[in-house]
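May I ask you to comment on the folded chain given beneath this request?
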Amino acid sequence: MNTHVTTKNSFDISDRTLLSLCKASLRLEAAAIADYSETLGNEFLAALKILRDAREPVVVAGIGKSGHIARKIASTFRSIGRSAVFLHAAEASHGDLGLVGPQSAVVVLSNSGETAELSDLIRYCNLNAVPMIAIVSNAESTLGKHSDVVLAYGTIEEACPNGLAPTTSTTLALAIGDALAVGLVRMIGTTPEDFRRYHPGGKLGAKLLRVCDIMHMGDSLPIVDPDLMMQEVVITMSAKGFGVALVVEDEAVCGIITDGDMRRNVDRLWQSRARDVSLGKPLSIEPDCLASEALEIMSANGITCLPVEDQGGKLLGLVHVHDCLRAGVSQ
């Protein structure tokens, strides 16, 4: 099926001209962000302190394209551990002002600062002494004048060729929201472990997984005594399904037996004990290490398992290369 749509307003334009137009758009938006970054000062610090000190969720509000950016900013705040919700400005007048608590902070996005739908939200915040941060072009707009902190970026040129579609202004508003989030990360002390807790799924969650999150423990481990005859060792290895046996004495791994070790000792295998076949203490890893580190060690050494031990050498578990791969871990 032909999905190409031609409208009566389509114009012929060369590929070179089209690419030039698009490159100019990117340069224009990048320049707007760079120019604004040079103006950051005390007002930005004041906004960060308001966001940090809010005892209830931060409310990020907007309408239209600014509403889409506001929703993204609220989502970013949540991802770093700063509780936040999005409020559609038009819905604020129809019951959603209940999202704004007495100890909330409100961030309002509006390029013009004169959007009529913002009036009830502005009035509510002013009457209830809820601190309000404006991300707006004009500090002297209605929104700017009624806000506690104004992050004003001034008059800017939209990248849209017609100067109509919100382009540069929305990109800049989003970048300002990201800058606030970056500052909050340091102020509230968000750590990589916090990110993993807030992003348990996907590639980010896998990247931050620790060995203790995926290791096998307890009765599932293929543990054998050093004096156990190899006939019994083979039974344990088959039953546990890891392809190895951990030779353990006094709760510490003193050796490991693999399929390769058994093949190399096939002539004397059934007359041997576990200690006779194992090649000594294997590589190991601690439980708080990243799973990606475990995968890297296994890949570099051509092995499939790593015993997990505490700092004193006590066996805690076993991590298998398949556990890492199933969890989406990469080196």
The chain has two domains: 15-190, 211-326. The radius of gyration is 30 Å. Residues 255 and 280 are 4 Å apart (CA to CA). The beta strands are 58-62, 84-88, 106-110, 132-136, 149-152, 223-224, 244-249, 252-258, 305-309, 315-320.
